[in-house]
Specification:
This protein has about 350 residues and is α+β, with helices and mostly antiparallel strands. The chain contains twelve helices and ten strands. The strands form two sheets. Strands 1, 4, 5, 6, 7, 8, 9 and 10 form an eight-stranded mixed β-sheet that branches. A two-stranded antiparallel sheet has the order 2-3. The protein is elongated. It binds phenylalanine. The site of phenylalanine has 10 residues, from strand 9 and strand 10.
């Protein structure tokens, strides 16, 4: 019996076979257990010999089972280690790496430059109400500026005749939201996406602006001009760039100025600071008293300037990209060429 089981245990191929053997030998109805039960029918002399022998056999079988079980587990682990090994010295497979989109890069650069001038970054929703996008900014519903903005309107459910939400046409609503939240004095920029139904070489229906707002007790147009000049010099990394301030009109600023940057477009190549072309990059002015009032700031106590810069235009100028639409074509070859390594 002993040899039979020790051989069987030794030859068992896996844990299931081993368990079967255990039941067969020392389980409740196992061969050894049954023999132990028959001890009762023996004479005391026989029992004295057979009893210890059977107990020793049972212990030996149990020990052999345990030893084989751990040997099987070791073998299984060895087998796994043999198949799942990894050579950490192999050269890595080349990975396709993404890049930072020029618009994201420029947004970062612009934010960093204005941060140095003490502007905090503010945010607002891209889907907004006509109060924030127009009315609060002194553009009432009959005002021609609304029609000129090529606004995208969200549709309402049938029967819901509240005024529709709109895709913001500029970042100026963030002026109102920021002043409502933190009052004056305030110095913020608000970069983000804006939307207008317009499409050609220098217009896409979604584009990017960065709003600037600086309100204090004695903030003036001269401060605006200085800020913008410092910004343009820092952004284009030059000591001098020609800027053209053109008198303009925005309902939310008075007086207002549009600012152009000197550039040339020779053979489809765009260059900043030379030639006799101009590219408009921003609108600006002194915040209209009504706008301050609409945002809960007292215009008798506070005044200041605001500007809205076209981020996409800045990127075109800085990287000599003549067609704005390329930014949003998602052409991987283009993105690889103009993208920035993270
Ligand atoms: N919101 C204006 C536009 O989109 C730009 C602007 C911002 C003008 C702030 C003046 C002050 O054209």
């Amino acid at each position: 019996l002993r040899d039979k089981y020790l051989t069987l245990i030794n030859d068992a191929g896996d844990e299931a076979a081993l368990e079967e053997l255990r039941v067969q030998a020392v389980g409740k109805k196992g061969e050894i257990s049954l023999q132990m039960r028959s001890l009762g029918k023996m004479s005391p002399e026989e029992r004295q010999v057979a009893g210890p022998a059977l107990n020793a056999l049972k212990d030996e079988i149990n020990a052999a089972l345990a030893a084989k079980k751990s040997a099987l587990a070791d073998a299984a682990l060895d087998a796994r280690l043999a198949t799942e090994w990894l050579d950490v010295t192999l050269p890595a497979r080349p990975q396709r790496q993404g890049s930072i989109h020029p618009i994201s890069q420029v947004t970062e650069e612009v934010s960093a430059i204005f941060a140095d001038m003490g502007f905090a970054v503010a945010e607002g929703p891209q889907i907004d109400t006509d109060w924030y996008v127009f009315d609060a900014l002194n553009i009432p519903s009959h005002h021609p500026a609304r029609a000129e903005m090529d606004t995208f309107y969200m549709s309402r459910a049938e029967g819901d005749d509240r005024a529709p939400h709109i895709l913001r046409t500029h970042t100026s609503p963030v002026q109102i939201r920021s002043m409502e939240k933190q009052g004056a004095p305030i110095r913020i920029i608000a970069p983000g996406r804006v939307y207008r139904a317009d499409y050609d070489q220098t217009h896409t229906p979604m584009f990017h602006q960065v709003e600037g707002l600086c309100i204090g007790k004695d903030v003036s147009m001269a401060n605006l001009k200085w800020c913008l000049e410092e910004f343009v010099k820092a952004f284009f990394e030059v000591d001098h760039v020609e800027l053209r301030f053109r008198a303009s009109h925005f309902p939310f600023t008075e007086p207002s100025a549009e600012v152009d940057i000197q550039c040339s477009w020779e053979n489809g190549v765009l260059k900043v600071g030379e030639g006799d072309d101009w590219m408009e990059i921003l609108g600006s002015g002194m915040v209209h008293p009504k706008v301050l009032e609409n945002a809960g700031v007292d215009p008798k106590e506070y005044q200041g300037f605001a500007f809205g810069i076209g981020i996409d235009r800045l990127a075109m100028l800085k990287y000599g990209i003549p067609d704005l639409r390329a930014f949003f074509d998602s052409d991987l070859r283009w993105l690889k060429h103009y993208g920035f390594t993270p």
